[in-house]
Amino acid sequence: DTEVTQTPKHLVMGMTNKKSLKCEQHMGHRAMYWYKQKAKKPPELMFVYSYEKLSINESVPSRFSPECPNSSLLNLHLHALQPEDSALYLCASSQEATGGNGYTFGSGTRLTVV
Amino acid sequence: GENVEQHPSTLSVQEGDSAVIKCTYSDSASNYFPWYKQELGKRPQLIIDIRSNVGEKKDQRIAVTLNKTAKHFSLHITETQPEDSAVYFCAVPALRAGNMLTFGGGTRLMVKP
């Protein structure tokens, strides 16, 4: 299995809703990432997990809450989002938490906040 | 922090022509330089990468060249085809982000048949 799987593919949520994005990989990668991508912009790093521990939080608002239940799974819990949080949320993984390897990206969750 | 500048932002070429996209970076300690291709509505996919101990790497119609002294690296696509149309991103490990990959602004390549 050489893929990163993200669910759901699309999500529409209200500003008072609570939802979760899920990411899964079975490549034995020990680093997992959340990136946010707005239209016509590059991916921007949000969080990095290394060996199931949060190692980097790029000053992301607390309405985004990551969780890594085990080495294969990564969640992003969403609560009280704003319309400007609408974006493509990409999960990625790599063998180690470093910029020295290529990342494998999932297909993303396209989030719309209404 | 790491600045990653990518040029041009858009590039239109005729099918069969070559395309070159350039990326400049600021941290001389950077040692890994990947290129990603993102088709409309799809995930970024790694298409080629180079490490700082080599100056050029080729994979069929694509190549990456690295000039460490000048701190820039370039993506070269020869004999372009319509399916090469996509947004291409360079990336560099950014010290300010724990050495995680930071992406350039992207280049929208359009290959006209």
Q: Terminal Cα separation of chain A, in Å?
A: 36 Å
Strand content of chain B: over 45%
Structural class by helix and strand composition of chain B:
mainly beta
Mean pLDDT of chain A: 94
Roughly what percent helix of chain B?
under 10%
Separation of termini of chain B?
41 Å
DSSP helix count of chain B?
A: 0
Instruction: Characterize the quaternary organization of these chains.
Output: heterodimer
Radius of gyration of chain A: 13 Å
What ranges of chain A have pLDDT less than 50 throughout 5 or more consecutive residues?
A: none
Global structural class of chain A: mainly beta
Broad shape of chain A: globular
Overall form of chain B: globular
Number of helices of chain A: 0
Mean pLDDT over the residues of chain B:
93
Strand content of chain A: over 45%
Let me know the number of strands of chain A.
11
Helix content, binned percent of chain A: under 10%
Order of helices and strands of chain B: EEEEEEEEEEE
**Which H/E pattern describes the elements of chain A?**
EEEEEEEEEEE
Radius of gyration of chain B: 14 Å
